[in-house]
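Notes for week 9. Today we move from apo structures to complexes. The key idea is that a small molecule is not decoration. When we ask for a structure prediction with pyridoxal-5'-phosphate present, the ligand SMILES becomes part of the input, just like the chain. The input block below holds both the sequence and the ligand string. Read it once before you look at the output, and try to guess where the molecule might sit.
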Amino acid sequence: MSIFKPANRLNLPAYPFAELERKASSIRASGGVLHDLSIGDPDLPPPQFVVDAIKASLDDPAAHVYPSSRGNPEVRESVARWFKGRFGVSVDPKTQICISIGGKEALSQFARAIVNPGETVAFPDPCYPVFRRAGTFMLDANPLKLPLDPQNGFLPDIKPAKGARLLFINYPNNPTGASAPDSFLMELGKFTDDNPDTSVAYDMAYSEMTFGAPSRSLLEFTPNAVEFHSLSKMANATGYRIGFAVGDPSRISALVRVKEEMDSGAPLPFQRALQTILDRYDGTTPPPELTANRAVYYSRKKRLEAAIKETGFEVFETDATFYSWFRVGVTEVPYINRLVESGLLLTPGSGFGEGGIGWVRASVTAPDSAIDAAAEIIRQIGTDI
Ligand SMILES: Cc1ncc(COP(=O)(O)O)c(C=O)c1O
């Protein structure tokens, strides 16, 4: 009898968050209380007008036929208008925008459009796991890690990426919450222009999850990169699976070609959901629902970080993302285990790569009561691991 073996490229350690989810469900199944701050999946609902747009679109006859792989032309026009108002950058909706089935899909398909087996993909360490897994290992490519140094605001030295086929960069950053200063974007823009053989994928999934100055687009500094946006974190809509890529026309066209081979585009009702929210921006000012949303996450983040700081652990304080990122020592694993035993699930930094060892990520995407319970557990355990 033959024993089935999947392709070698599936020979990866379990997806870190899938493992966490399994751990969480087994604790719940045994009747234990678990406050889950491990995954960046908003507990708050999307704005009602977004839900209404989806419902209305279901009655549109265009909603039940195949969408296009590049995305609905009107939705792309809304993206272009938003980009001009939000970042001051003009892009051609016909050639420079591709609607995607979320950011994860676009990032991994973009890598497939660019990278040949054996070529090098550069990404930060720690990073969003898709860069090193779907974007590198699953394409039989070679990884090049760019360490993120806390002393340098968790910004990488990008010079070693010269010669790589693809460079992934992400700000506002998951998992650290860091933002990119203009000086870094300027340097990255110049790198992009000076190294046409290295495609630069700039991931802005958290572009709208900021609490201070609005984030800036890399496309303000170079026309040659491709930038990735998503409705997921912007509008508490991770389940809607909708995002978009914007930038250099030839690279966008390569992404569309992959999508034509592999999927048939994003469902129209969810494209309309994206359109309705982008249309309600006034320049850099989001609709009031998003401002209110940010205020909730900001207050939770500050409350949790106050408790963490009381313990004496070092918090990397930021004005972006709904993540708190803090250092607990040489390794974070015993601390994570101690928390789980006390009913709190956080994400070990090592799940984001070697550079995350010793760090812990808490996502404040759980109800206020869970944030307060988590703060209490963190205070009680203190540094006594
Ligand atoms: C840095 C980063 N990029 C992209 C994504 C993808 O989000 P989605 O596929 O829901 O658009 C995530 C989701 O967690 C993320 O953290």
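The mean pLDDT is 95.
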